[in-house]
Amino acid sequence: MAERRAAEQGGGTASGTGTGRGGNMSVREAGRKGGRTTRARYGAEFFQEIGAKGGKAVSERYSNEHFREIGRKGGRRVAELIARAKRLEPGTEAPAERE
Questions:
Q1: Rounded to 10 degrees, what is the CA torsion of 21, 25, 29, 32?
Q2: What's the rounded Cα separation, in Å, for the pair 22 and 96?
Q3: Backbone conformation region of residue 98, classed left if phi is above 0, alpha if psi is from -120 to 50, else beta
Q4: Which tens digit of pLDDT belongs to each residue from 34-68?
Q5: How many helices (H) and strands (E) does the chain have?
Q6: Helix (H) or strand (E) holding 76
Q7: Would you call 92 helix, strand, or coil by DSSP?
Q8: Rounded CA separation 93/58 (Å)
Q9: N or C: more exposed end of the chain, with fewer CB within 10 A?
Q10: How many CA atoms lie within 13 A of 99 on its CB side?
Q11: Once rounded to an integer, what is the mean pLDDT over residues 6-27?
């Protein structure tokens, strides 16, 4: 298990596979390798194009209200995280929270 964690965090073994498991690679390593190969073969623009196609497909599938709602949820979560960070900062006073 420790070998796998080390391999996934960029460590590895002298075998060159980065896993130490007889040449098998983790899913993360395989995905990274495939992504790099695809980028080398097709270029970064390819990823931009398929990202745009995927975004268009998703926007056609869901209503505007869906995107508004997930935006609200994300905004609330960010606000909570900022408030928590301010409370944890040493030497600063957190503003009084609203009810």
A1: 150
A2: 58
A3: beta
A4: 999 999 999 989 999 999 999 999 999 999 999 99
A5: 4, 0
A6: helix 64-88
A7: coil
A8: 43
A9: C
A10: 0
A11: 58
Question: In this structure, which amino acid lies at residue 54?
Answer: G
First-residue to last-residue Cα distance in the chain: 47
For the chain, the C-alpha Rg in angstroms (whole number) is 22
What are the residue boundaries of the structural domains of the chain, listed by start? 2-42, 45-88
Rounded to whole angstroms, the Cα distance separating 81 from 85 reads 6
Average confidence (pLDDT) over 7-29: 61
Query: How far apart (Å, rounded) are the C-alpha atoms in residues 1 and 8?
Result: 11
Coil vs helix vs strand at 94: coil
Using an 8 Å Cβ cutoff, are 50 and 58 in contact? no
